[in-house]
Amino acid sequence: MMIAYPAADICCELNEDKILTLTIENQHLFYSIINDIQTQLEGNDGKFVLSENFQPLDMRKYIELITQLVPFTVNQKELVSKLHFLLKRKAVDEIMYQSTHEIISKISEYLYKLTEEQDMELAINAPDDIAGILKAFDVRFEDNDMSLPEKILEYTITSNELKGTKLFIIVNLRSYLTDAQAEQLFQSMLLKKLQLICIESSEHERLKNEEVIIIDKDMCII
């Protein structure tokens, strides 16, 4: 895959063996590129281009932009919804169908017994699938004891598997991680064949598994 932003003469191919870092020291350009990406992810037109074999790709299908790292959780709403959808399908496959049917019947039976002697008029909306059970038991990803780089790695792996995300763009990641943490995260993502672009507002120590392009305050590419 390749990325391009013609307004700043940026055009480069993504390398499977390196993490690409765009260090953009010009504040206006920094904002413009991030805003352009977000605008396209919302379904609008923009100038930032992601392509493969010289064919532009729909960024909404391939890219995830991460601008908030504090707080950061693996349990993003869309990802948890994808998890629940996956579990709902599994619940009715040939292996789990009988168990699922039994547990839903048991819950319905319990609720009717619990309420049958009450003088109040009560209504019970008995579940016909496990969606309500998943929500009631708050089924989600466990990330409470994870460090930030561990959360990011787990999130990118899971998002790739459940949502099909091909490219992650993270803003100012290096401001939150030590060089050692960043290098380990980059290496882990490369081993998992996950593609990452870091957009940084200032220069950091260049890492061995990183390709860096610097656009200085005068819009010159270094």
Low-confidence stretches: none
Taken together, the total number of domains comes to 2
Cα distance spanning the termini: 22 Å
Structural class: alpha/beta
Q: Assign a percent range to the helix content.
A: 25-40%
Q: What this model shows, in words?
A:
This protein has about 220 residues and is of the alpha/beta class. The protein has helices spanning about 25-40, 60, 75-90, 95-115, 130-135, 150-165, 180-190, and strands spanning about 1-5, 10-15, 20-25, 50, 55, 65, 165-170, 195-200, 210-215. The protein has seven helices and nine strands. It has a five-stranded parallel sheet with strand order 6-7-8-3-9. It is elongated, with a radius of gyration of 23 Å.
Concise summary:
The protein is built from 7 helices and 9 strands. It is an alpha/beta fold and 222 residues long.
Q: What is the strand and helix layout of this fold?
A:
Blueprint: E1 2-5, E2 10-13, E3 19-24, H1 27-41, E4 49-52, E5 55-56, H2 59-62, E6 63-66, H3 77-91, H4 97-115, H5 131-136, H6 148-163, E7 167-171, H7 179-191, E8 195-200, E9 210-215
Parallel strand pairs: 3-8, 3-9, 6-7, 7-8
Antiparallel strand pairs: 1-2, 1-4, 4-5
List keywords for this structure.
9 strands; 18% strand; 2 domains; alpha/beta; 4-stranded antiparallel β-sheet; 222 residues; Rossmann fold; 5-stranded parallel β-sheet
